[in-house]
Amino acid sequence: MLATENSRKTGNRQRLIEAALEAIAERGYAATSVSEIVARAGLSRGMIHLHFQGKDALIAEAAHHASDAYYSQLDAHLSAAAPSPTAQICAVVACDLSSAVMNPRTVGIWYELRGAARTVPAIAAHSDTRGGRLEEVLTRAFSALADGNSALAQDAMRGTIALLDGIWTDFMLHPDGFDVPRAERVIYRFLNGLFPGSFPASDAMNGSDALRARLAEQFDPPSLGHDAISALLAEQYGLHGNLQALDGEGEQTLRLDCENGQKYVVKITRDKGAPGAAAFQMRALRHLALHLPGRGLPVARAALNGALIVQCDGAGEDACELRVLSYTSGQPIDVGAPPTSLLAYSAGMLLGSTTQALATLDGAPPPAFNEWGIENGLLANPAFWGLGQCDIRAYEPDLRPRYERLLPRLKEQRWQLVHNDSHLENILRAAPDADSVCGLIDFGDMARAPLVCDAAILALGFAEHARDPAAMAAAAVAGYHAACPLVGAELDLIHGAMISRQALSVLLLDAKLSAPSPRTDAMRQIRAGLMERLTVLAALNGAEVTAAIQAACRGDHDDR
């Protein structure tokens, strides 16, 4: 009974605090009355006096609650960032410019409380940016950068806080037209003036516009009408049925449900993007069908005249190429039961076998820029980081130098034609809880790349959702290694390649999100998940992950 009563009192106290903050956010401090608060909380007036001895004490406690919420966000950003002074300062900037902190409700509450602090001293302790933890964090970081120059460190700390306060004011007055990247540029321009070259360069951020336009072309698929596509399928392939649009990036992708019950995947690409690429992919799939029959890989279907590619035009479209693939039955791993190490090993075996089969294919794909390739150098480009939102930008001081050290080592490893996109949406199993795979789909990003990158993408897919990321990554790589042996130097690079791929994915999504799209809300949810998992992966001990991968490939703990 006593525990129940205490729980009820705690709940009532919290309801009053939340009601006070909501009233302040919507009506302002001056219009927030006791009657307003208790009405929102659904409690009697006496509850305020019972729990807080009056309105002023309640508002002071609400200010304390709001301050704790801010510092909870700040601690999360700081703990996710590298320990270097620059990374810690960037984490503060990222936190203050993040949507979780800088939003109309939070900023409105903060300014109302700062105004009230003039007449209610108890509120000032929780709404003043001077003398608090924020000042301590920045002073410690700037002192390390200033190399003993305490005056410089103090000026940098005061200037940064003043800029952040002013940016919040600008956001409060002009929330609809507020430009977060511009605000970030202002802060880093100021900081680079004090500490040249230590922070992201503002000219690199401005240079991101050209890169954004270049990437936009990669993410702009054709959009031929279903009637036109149906007519082509009937005329060129003798296929009739219903078309259903599927997700695609640089290509228009549809599923064809035929009248006879058969299913196919239809892909349409612009020929100018990478001339000859679609034809090479179809030839590669024909090769795989010969060398890995019955393994659940897409099979290229020829047109009635024997051609693997059909040229087509659409209203407002450039010349396009249409191709038809078999539909692979199964369920993507990412929507079933949590993957097991057995499933990860099985996926590695299938991907490694695919890689081995591709090694015997004559010829090479036509040169084309692969935006998803870990080895493409984008993560070494400051302009590319300039496309990112504040949270991912906080990782730049740590991850960009790490990638710059990784990239030349990747280029020294074995290269060949690989699948290059084995995330868990592209790997199939027959049932939601199956421990073995039944298919591998989407060869659209197939490219000549380091073998280690192919294995790292697979390892990342299994690690990012796992309770034990190192063990799941190791199981996936061990399966790959069993079918396509990797050397020690390649195994050493897998963890770094995994982190790089995750950061690359977040930044590419930010490039997509810079342009309005019907899928914007869905992409934001995907991005939030990617950032959450990047935080977890970046916190892993790289040496321990590498050791687990090496042990699994040696078979030290083989319980499969």
Number of DSSP-assigned strands: 11
Radius of gyration, whole Å: 28 Å
Mean pLDDT comes to 86
In whole angstroms, the N-to-C terminal distance is 51 Å
Summed up, the domain count is 2
- What's the assembly state of these chains? single chain
**Fraction of helical residues:** 55-70%
What's the CATH C level of the largest domain? Answer: Alpha Beta
Short description:
By secondary structure, the protein is an alpha+beta fold.
Overview of this structure, please?
By secondary structure, this protein is an alpha+beta fold. The protein folds into two domains: 198 residues, Tetracycline Repressor, domain 2 (Orthogonal Bundle); 329 residues, Aminoglycoside phosphotransferase (APH), C-terminal lobe (Aminoglycoside 3'-phosphotransferase, Chain: A, domain 2, Alpha-Beta Complex), CATH 3.90.1200.10. Helix content is 57%, strand content 9%. The chain is built from 24 helices and eleven strands. A hairpin with a 7-residue loop joins β5 and β6. The radius of gyration is 28 Å and the shape is globular. The protein starts with a helix and ends in a 6-residue tail after the last helix.
Feature tags:
57% helix, globular, 9% strand, three-stranded antiparallel sheet, six-stranded antiparallel sheet, alpha+beta, 560 residues, Tetracycline Repressor, domain 2, 2 domains, Aminoglycoside 3'-phosphotransferase, Chain: A, domain 2
List the helices and strands and how they pair.
Elements: H1 2-27, H2 34-41, H3 46-52, H4 55-80, H5 85-97, H6 104-116, H7 121-127, H8 133-146, H9 150-173, H10 180-194, H11 202-206, H12 208-218, H13 226-237, E1 241-246, E2 252-258, E3 263-270, H14 277-291, E4 300-301, E5 310-312, E6 320-326, E7 331-332, H15 341-358, H16 382-385, H17 390-393, H18 396-411, E8 415-418, E9 427-429, E10 439-440, E11 447-450, H19 451-463, H20 469-483, H21 488-491, H22 494-513, H23 520-538, H24 542-554
Antiparallel strand pairs: 1-2, 2-3, 3-6, 4-6, 5-6, 7-9, 8-11, 9-10
Helix pairs in contact: 1-2, 1-3, 1-4, 1-6, 3-4, 4-5, 4-7, 5-8, 6-9, 8-9, 9-10, 15-19, 15-20, 18-22, 19-20, 19-22, 20-24, 22-23
